[in-house]
Design a protein that fits this description.
The chain is an alpha/beta fold and 407 residues long. The protein contains 13 helices and 15 strands. The strands form four sheets. An eight-stranded mixed beta sheet has the order 3-4-6-5-7-8-14-15, with helices on both faces. Strands 9-10-11 form a three-stranded antiparallel beta sheet. Helix 5 (178-190) links the parallel strand 7 (169-174) and strand 8.
């Protein structure tokens, strides 16, 4: 009933949002004499904020038709290179780009948001790299006949896509995929797979959540595994293609994230309201754009979510040397020639400081010269891969690391 209750609420809010938008437009219309009053402006702005906050959100687009290389505008074509039931591999091709640029696979998180959450990441790296990205599918849209999707499948997808792209590919794992990407690097290294990553950069990833545990980590460890099975797993309603599938709904993930910083979100919407009253449409639109992306959520399969809770957050299987993949041990000691970069935010309230850096400690056979670490002291979780500090402070370090090991 959880999913059905949410759908009913969403439908009601969608109607209220449409009415509020009409009301806002009328209150601000030049033909309405009330629009020129202070009260009219406040009512129009308030209705606008409510309309935006309650509107339904679908899957956003990357919307990156061009990039700039050496001061020249270069066309970008978004191409789906390979499709699988639970995800696809997107390639941002640029016909006029230099042919010798490093190949970079960006692994987007399967954590309730779409890959477009990394739009700013892609945009910043496009000029200097041949960019590929994982685009995970909303589990509620995957028919039951496609089967299940486990943590093992996630690792298999990454290995398959690296083999598709070919040798000398660099990998950037943002947040949650740090663990499966690291596992893929371990397995490919153990098998001497020629398509194993040239480098693996991990940003705010939960390699070892025992280091500086955050509220997210505490919630995952203080409750028994059975609690998650019984309280956060829902069944997709029949009117979706994936009807009957067990999922961890995206709306629950979003609710949890919003609750963690409820005060900040209220302040953001109050500021949006003030910007609208003051006629600062550009600042209001910037806040709207952020929340359009932030509130666009998707479901993940129950089996993948529950295995992640068990493997990553409760048993700490990877740093303990106990993680398995289809009966084979995931051995960090197998990594000897995949250079590692760990990037963390000093204000990250999702992955605490030290959790990603742990990857550098558990790889004894990788030379120290191939390990690098960056702590962005004034950056939170989202700011690691998006925003001004990402563009000016973090991306240059990542680019230099890739270039250093690209030969």
């Amino acid at each position: 009933m959880l999913y059905e209750a949410y759908e009913m609420q969403r439908s009601l809010l969608a109607g209220a949002s449409a009415m509020a938008e009409l009301g806002s437009e009328w209150m601000a219309h030049p033909a309405n004499p009330f629009a020129r009053t202070q009260l009219g402006s406040m009512m129009a702005s308030g209705l606008d904020v409510f309309a935006h906050a309650s509107a339904p959100h679908g899957k956003p687009e990357f919307g990156l038709p061009v990039t700039h290389i050496d001061g020249k505008e270069v066309a970008v074509v978004e191409k789906i290179e390979e499709r699988k039931p639970f995800g696809q591999l997107i390639h941002f091709t640029r016909p006029d780009a230099p042919k010798d640029q490093p190949k970079l696979l960006i692994v987007a998180p399967m954590s309730g948001h779409y890959a477009t959450l990394l739009r700013g990441t892609v945009e910043r790296l496009l000029p200097g790299h041949d960019i590929w990205i994982t685009d995970w599918r909303d589990a509620r849209l995957v028919p039951l006949k496609a089967g299940e999707f486990h943590l093992d499948d996630y690792v298999d997808y990454l290995i398959s896509w690296l083999e598709h792209i070919g040798p000398n590919t660099h990998v950037l794992a943002v947040c949650q995929p740090a663990v499966p990407a690291f596992a893929a690097a371990c397995l490919m290294s153990a098998h001497k797979n020629p398509a194993r990553p040239k480098t693996l950069s991990m940003m705010g990833g939960p390699i070892d959540t025992r280091e500086a545990p955050t509220e997210v980590n505490t919630v995952a460890t203080q409750r028994p595994f059975s609690w998650f099975e019984q309280n956060v797993i829902a069944t997709v309603p029949f009117y979706y293609p994936g009807g009957g599938r067990k999922v961890y709904p995206g709306f629950l993930q979003l609710t949890g994230f919003m609750a963690m910083n409820w005060g900040n979100h209220l302040v953001s919407h109050w500021q949006m309201f003030r910007h609208l009253i003051d006629g600062d449409q550009e600042s209001a639109d910037a806040t709207k754009a952020f929340y359009d992306e932030y509130r666009s959520v998707c479901d993940m399969t129950a089996e993948f979510y529950l295995e992640t809770i068990d493997t990553v957050f409760q048993r700490h299987a990877l740093p303990e040397g106990k993680m398995m993949h289809r009966g084979e041990k995931v051995d960090p000691a197998a990594i000897s020639d995949v250079a590692l970069l760990a990037i963390e935010g000093g204000r990250d309230d999702i992955s605490g400081v030290g959790q990603t850096k742990a990857a550098l400690k558990i790889t004894p056979n990788l030379p120290d010269a191939d390990k690098e670490y960056l702590l962005a002291k004034k950056v939170g979780h989202y700011g690691i891969f998006n925003g001004r500090r990402w563009r000016t402070e973090i991306a240059p370090v990542l680019e230099a690391f890739i270039q250093k090991h690209n030969a």
